[in-house]
Amino acid sequence: MSASIVPLSKDNHKHIKVLDQVDTSVVEGQQLVPLAAQEIARAAVVFPVVYVKDANTGTFRLVAMCGLKPGENLFVENGEWLSVYIPAALRNLPFQLGRNEDGDKTQAFVCINENSSLVDDSGIALFEESGDESEFLKSRTAMLAQYDADVKMTEGYISYLVENELLVQKSIALNFTENEQFNLNGIYTIDEEKLAGLSASAFEDMRKRGFLPSIYGHLISLNQIHSLILKRQKKS
């Protein structure tokens, strides 16, 4: 954990205020933004939603693709977020959950990035004069808890896809202009051929687990790659 990210407490942060907006500096130049599976339906109307594999750990993650090349985010311009949908990982800032491990027990607690640009005297108070949590802080704490639960469910969803070999690596040739071509590498998508070849019982198992909306939402979202190309051409 960064030294600037500390446990939130009324003793140390009673007079802290936070802006209720997006800190685009965190994702400016960030091609991939983390998503939970529960976000796919809303994210799919804006971003290509894909899977990526960590080269060191082999772990897969679900992400919104905000650019076509590393270091590119087409949804940030002049400090503004240019999408109707804001991924929860970005919405939650400057807060995040920390954890204390005590034997078999894990205790979660709210942390704040004290160096975030969202910490500002013109923002919303986190604590009332009485020391009680403000409604704003209660709302943000509930958002963190929900996102944490969604991330855990997403990990189970991705594990299922990996175990059943339903992810396939893709390389997509992109043509920006006559003189600029680029191969989009390193992304994984649902293997539609394997999906179509699943037995009725396997398909029913996925339905019962609630995975089908995430799978089909992801596949539909791939149409947004063309939208990113147009967005990039417009910026150029």
Mind explaining what this structure looks like?
This protein is α+β, with helices and mostly antiparallel strands and 236 residues long. It has one domain (22-97, 135-235). It has helices spanning 10-13, 40-43, 88-91, 135-163, 192-196, 200-209, 212-221, 224-235; strands spanning 5-7, 17-18, 32-34, 49-53, 60-65, 76-77, 80-81, 95-102, 105-113, 124-125, 167-177, 180-190. It has a five-stranded antiparallel sheet with strand order 3-5-4-12-11, sandwiched between helices. Strand 4 (49-53) and strand 5 form a beta hairpin. The relative contact order is 0.19.
Topology:
Blueprint: E1 5-7, H1 10-13, E2 17-18, E3 32-34, H2 40-43, E4 49-53, E5 60-65, E6 76-77, E7 80-81, H3 88-91, E8 95-102, E9 105-113, E10 124-125, H4 135-163, E11 167-177, E12 180-190, H5 192-196, H6 200-209, H7 212-221, H8 224-235
Antiparallel strand pairs: 1-9, 2-10, 3-5, 4-5, 4-12, 6-7, 8-9, 11-12
C-alpha Rg (nearest Å):
20 Å
Mean pLDDT across every amino acid position? 93
- Weakly predicted, low-confidence segments: none
Order of helices and strands: EHEEHEEEEHEEEHEEHHHH
The shape, in one word, is globular
Main-sheet strand order equals 3-5-4-12-11
**Major β-sheet profile:** 5 strands, antiparallel
